What we know:
The protein is mostly helical. It contains six helices and no strands.
Amino acid sequence: NDEDKKYLNEAILCLEHGLNRASVVMIWSAAMHLLKKEVEDKHLHNFNAEALKVNTKWRLAKTTDDLGLMKETDFLDRLENIYLINKDVKKQLQECLTLRNSCAHPNSLKIEKHRVASCAEILILNVFKCFV
């Protein structure tokens, strides 16, 4: 959809201009948006039930914005628990999330295009190709 295309186009533009950290942040955002949309469209009931098992204070999500209230690490755990992703995919997504977190906050981390490409490859193969 148009929203996902915007994120991906920004990620590509960032990469083309050598903004490697920004590219990681944008491609991660696009992947998370796609996963949240998948949950909202097809798995919301199961997701909410699983979220309530873990946190009795969870307010039932109705939209992608509601899903965004959950920490991304917890969101990935819930996706595994409802069998939307398996443990190996979750592990790879967690590594991309760790990189995204490092890229999104001020620090001295430097990364090159091949590291961005590695993260992008994981997201393309395990999110974009699976949930489009």
